[in-house]
Amino acid sequence: MNLPIKLALRYLKGRKLRTALTTLAVMFGVLVIFGMNTFMPTFVQAFQSQMMAVAGQIDVTITHKTGEAFDPSLLEKVRGIEGVKVAMGSLERLINLPADYFDRDPQTPDRVSTLVLKGIDPEMARQMIAYNVVEGRFLDPQDTHAAVITRSLARELGVGVGDKLALPTAIGVTDLEVVGLLPERALPGNEEVLVTLGEAQYLLNLPGKINVIDVNLTTLDEAQRAEIRQRLMTVVGDHYKIGALESGSEILTNIRNAQLIFNLMGFLALLMGGFIIFNTFRTVVAERRRDIGMLRALGASRATIRNLILAEGLIQGIVGTVAGLILGYLFGWFILQLIVPVGKQFLNIKVGLPAVSPSLVITSSLLGIGITVLAGLLPAQSATRVTPLEALRPSVGQVSFRRLAGLSFWAGVVLMILGVAILISGQAALLGIGAILFVSALILMAPALINPIAVLFGNLLALLFARNGTAQLAEGNLSRQPGRATVTASTTMIAMAVVIMVASVLSSVTLTFTKVLEKSLGSDFLIMPPTVAVWGSNTGAAPELAQKLREIPGVALVSTLRFAGSQVKDVAVGLLGIDPQAYRQLDALTITEGDPEIALRALENERAIIINGVLAATAGIRVDDEINLLTPSGEKTYRVVAIGIDYLNAKTTTGYISQANMATDFGRTEDVFYQVNLKPGADRAAVETAITQLLKSYPQFKLFSGKRYVEENRRLFDVVLLSMYAVAAFLAIPSLIAMVNTLAIGVIERTREIGMLRAVGATRRQVRTMILSEALILSAIGTAFGILAGLYMGYMAVRAFEGFGFPMEYLFPGSGILAAVAIGILFGALAATVPARQAAQLNVVEALRYE
After folding, report:
1. 470 compared with 817, residue with greater pLDDT
2. CA 105 to CA 664: how far, in whole Å?
3. pLDDT of residue 524
């Protein structure tokens, strides 16, 4: 074992508390980054496996970019391409099932919650795939109401050949006779129910349409296959793609954006850990000046001293990173358990165990170890400049404001001015830069402000600890080491800034979306599919259901939504078809730009579209622009007549067109969502009973009371609010570690001073009070800076959300400020516990002899 590592291990062993705290800071940062990146990919993978079809033994799959059904005439063009062995058109639709659909037991969710209904040409399908029927027979072209399923699905549902399988479809519940069983499914994905193409077109209300072309090629040579694929793309054109049928790509984009936000939180946690490590190593160098000087006098080179400090950082980085990886996996698993119910309720997906990839382990390890070593690099370089003569000089002194108000202070003032200027300008593109400038300004100005602020808070504490003198001693101790106090306060500042920023955003989101929620879903009854975020994966109902609802006595209004996928400027768009007249009475859209009456009238009379803010921001679209929407029959020009949102579609790129245009351009006539209003004086119970009876033929829908649904979502907002506060407080833990570290180092550094105080009559209680006062002053300084930074960052974040297309009303985060103050005081008191006890228990004689 070489000298630097040997000495590093000895020093770490001798300072167990400091070593544990520094290692804990590294562990915490790695835990957040690793943990967040294990559960988010798992969630994305579960979403993709739910929404994406599996191609099986197919060489090439061709689908429309919108995911919508198209005319089969393209199939003949594909078959005529050189190199295509066989091509088959099919119609596939994911069917989301209610959790209690098969067993009728709401307390025990079914193991099968989704199925893929796939309509095929039986003769062509046998040429494409070697279907091995293990029981019964395969489909015949003349079959009606017949299905072939796998043994695994038959076993789950308790059916066999000759039994009936009831499925919800656009025309109501349909009984299919199981005529054959295939082997258990070997590939991941949803179970398939195979029916004839004509049957699928009838059940899904898509006559004469297909949405997938499967192709097998004549060669296995990769170069030749690539040439054939290129020829295929040339023939099918830019509106089609080679790949699996996709649904919900707009949701997937939002999930990935959430992953970026979680990564940012993890990086902030690791950055706070870096502050702690830097502060620790800088103090280590100051504390060991005599030791370093003696090593230099005995012949140790500058490289040896530098390697000694870096070796300590490397050892703590490795230990902290390993612990962070282990606890991060457990953290990811815990988060998954919390979001599994949400996934089932809103997206109807099943989530597995956290996903761990080699690249994630390597990246997390490099960040954990790398930041630790980098944080120790500057103190290590400083240690190499210590000479034996300097080591004999005592360290000290009182630091004046004038001495500290140098270049860094004035640089901070300039950055502060720039940050405020960006805030006043309101430029969305500069919001992130403004936040960085403002926080950097506070960090640069902090050393010069520590002394006057410490005096202010010291005087306040002096009123609390009257005639004790401990508050002034605490203020003096911090003022002598403004650099160390600044680094510790900066850690607290970042933590409290995150708390305030989260509070600003969440309070503003709650205010805004509560209003939108009440307006969008304030109907008497809501009839909803299994998923409310991914409309394309729901099985709707033909217009006859809406008409039957309107015929129920006491019903005044039935408004429906229809769905179709599209693209504009290469951005995936979820289109919702509305009846403008019904929507005018419902008043469900919150229009943020444009005139509501003019916009709805335009939807009735022309190809017009209302877009939401997310689509406007993502695609750079404004009111009165003309946009080209991709449809199964080519691009169609629509005029943007307004920008608005509703609650269910506020987070995804969405456009609203008339149901008449949706039927003409997209061929979609099935309804996926219903809102029902009653006549004045109507018998609510009788209407509810009639709707419930009617929906027995459409089990893919559930009936909700509009008022009850709004209240449930309000409670969900409250839960999310508390959860995010808990996450913010969790991210503030490094500031607690930093304060404990700083106070513990201060006790070690002032051992002789504390011994002298005890020798001249100071009691143990006064010593404990002095350390507690230091902790409270430190936390107060950090919290004060954090509130300033958090208010700035929170306001900027709300404006940034507006730039991303979410209409937001800024709400001053009074509750967040109270939470930050409470967390700051609590952490200050907790941080003082161990160091205060350590200082109070010092032996007076040994303390006076300490060097």
Report:
1. 817
2. 41
3. 92
pLDDT at 364: 82
Where is 169: in which H helix or E strand? strand 164-169
The tokens for 384 are: 């190499």
- Encode 130-189 in three state secondary structure: CCCCCEECCCCCCCCCEEEEEHHHHHHHCCCCCCEEEEEECCEEEEEEEEEEECCCCCCC
Six-digit token string for 811: 């709400």
H-assigned helices in 2-121: 3-14, 16-51, 73-79
Q: In what helix (H) or strand (E) does residue 150 lie, and over which residues does it extend?
A: strand 146-150
Q: Which residues are paired to 658 by β-bridges? A: 578
**SS3 letters across 672-739:** EEEEEEECCCCCHHHHHHHHHHHHHHCCCCEEEEHHHHHHHHHHHHHHHHHHHHHHHHHHCHHHHHHH
Distance CA 70, CA 300 (A): 78
Residue in the block written with tokens 């300004």: 441
- Bridge partners, residue 349, by sequence: none
Rounded CA gap, 115 and 539, in Å?
11
Closest CA to 154 of 124, 176, 171: 176
C-alpha dihedral sign at 298, 301, 302, 306:
negative
| Strand blocks (E) in 474-570 | 525-528, 555-568
- Beta partners for 70? 210
Tokens standing for 693?
A: 């009876």
Q: What is the pLDDT of residue 197?
A: 95
Q: Is the dihedral of CA 105, 109, 111, 115 positive or negative?
A: positive
Q: Are 468 and 769 in contact (CB under 8 A)?
A: yes
pTM for this prediction:
0.69
CA distances from 396 to 286, 399, 477, 479 (A): 11, 9, 11, 11
Residue 280: name the closest of 145, 380, 151 by CA. Answer: 380
Token digits for 829? 């008191």
Distance from the Cα of residue 92 to its chain's centroid: 30
Rounded distance between C-alpha atoms, residue 790 and residue 414, angstroms:
19
pLDDT (tens digit per residue) in 471-505: 666 666 666 666 666 666 766 777 777 778 878 88
How many CA atoms does the CB half-sphere of 491 hold within 13 Å? 35
Cα–Cα dist 63/630, whole Å: 13
Evaluate if residue 134 carries a pLDDT over 70: yes
Per DSSP, the three-state class of 398 is coil
Cα angle 597, 603, 605; round to 5? 105
Closest CA to 65 of 227, 244, 253, 257: 244
Helix (H, G, I), strand (E, B) or coil at 171: coil
Q: Can you tell me the distance from the alpha carbon of 414 to that of 234, in angstroms, rounded to the nearest whole number?
A: 57
How far CA 170 is from CA of 110, 209, 689, in Å, comes to 22, 15, 22
- Alpha-carbon gap, residue 493 to 487, rounded angstroms: 10
